Amino acid sequence: MNHQEVLERFSKEQLMELIGIYAKNWLAMDGVWFQSVERKYGMDEAMAHDAAAWERFTVIEARRIKAFLGLPEHPGLEGLAQALSLRFYGNLNQAEPELRGNTLVYRVADCRVQSARTRKGMPLHPCKSVGLIEYGGFARTIDDRITCRCLSCYPEVTDETCSCAWEFTLEGPV
After folding, report:
1. In angstroms, rounded to a whole number, what is the distance separating the alpha carbons of residues 60 and 84?
2. SS3 label, residue 101
3. What's the rounded Cα separation, in Å, for the pair 133 and 20?
4. The whole model's pTM is what?
5. Would you give per-residue pLDDT tens digits along the chain (174 residues)?
6. Pfam families, alphabetically (predicted)?
């Protein structure tokens, strides 16, 4: 029996649960490799590898989601909002996208990574630098007219009401 046949046996609810399991497994693997490098070589080295991984992965993820949604070459901020909601960890973090004219503000109310590190007594992940690579690269892949700016993200938190906040701006002709 192949994988497709196995999946066809499950109900929609079971498949939705499985997507959540897959997302948690993916995030756990992301954290496990990161923490392994962090323990052995320190935070700076782990962050360098994290940045290199996200620089490539975010483009792969965005291309696949863009194709899945059938988005045009320039889907604008509406297309970006759709795509952000389908990211692998999209159902693990509580996010609040808000369109404001030619900007999209994307606030992550609760970040599973930071919550897990806090729960384990670990220092917070200094994710701003990698977040700029991750969110900026994702947005540019969805629509190359979109720029990304960090509004708040550890270690430069300016908004205590969320884990992080990002502003996407549509530049150029609409």
Report:
1. 13
2. coil
3. 25
4. 0.92
5. 898 899 999 999 999 999 999 999 999 999 999 999 999 999 999 999 999 999 999 999 999 999 999 999 999 999 999 999 999 888 788 898 999 989 999 999 989 899 999 999 999 999 999 999 999 999 999 999 999 999 999 999 999 999 999 999 999 766
6. DUF6125
